[in-house]
Design a protein that fits this description.
Number of helices: 8
Number of strands: 8
Strand content: 15-25%
Order of helices and strands: EHEEHEHEHEHEHEHH
Distance between the termini: 21 Å
CATH superfamily: Aldolase class I
Shape: globular
Strand order of the largest sheet: 1-2-3-4-5-6-7-8
Number of domains: 1
CATH topology: TIM Barrel
Largest sheet: 8 strands, parallel, barrel
CATH class: Alpha Beta
Amino acid sequence: MGPIIVPTILTNSTEQYKQIVAVYQAFAKRVQVDIADGTFAPNKTIPVDNVWWPQEWETDIHMMVVRPSEHMPVLLKLKPNLVIFHAETGENLLPMFDQLHEAGIKAGVALMRPTYPGSYKEFIEAADHVQVFAGEIGVQGSQADMLQTEKIKLIKDINPNCEIGWDGGANMKTTRAIAKAGADVINVGSALATAQDPKAMFDALSAEPDKRGVVI
């Protein structure tokens, strides 16, 4: 079985957020909501306390914020499936991981493009999910840096049991290569957001990893 295609939501408008949820509700079972504070990432999204989702969704929250600890009370109250913090914030994520686990929430860590996995070994060892961030922070539609696939083996060597996520530039041209590299979850933003038929695109992306032949 191939990796899971997970649509992402990134918006600074509560009205647009509602519209995107309505579109993705027709076909998605697991979705990632991107939250950016305008400091760690250049763009600012809706705040995390404005986030909601359909009851049937498995929802991941990707926190692109400078001080993750300040958002913990809201995140614990929301009870998502998974919360992903960036390793590079400068905060110690381990106490936050403990809080998430105590609340029955999975803990994830994201690594920016210049980040070597071995630099954050203790976070990777404690995480349920490690996200290889391969695009431009806080925007959709950036190109995938395919050299980031080399991190997947390094992460697995540190924590063979973690789920590997990929975020950035996933589309019909790159998804099969990302899957072959060993990603378990492929987050997709603009390829779905700009599609004329998002469900058809979702189905096509979901089928792509299982295709045989040369990856170009």
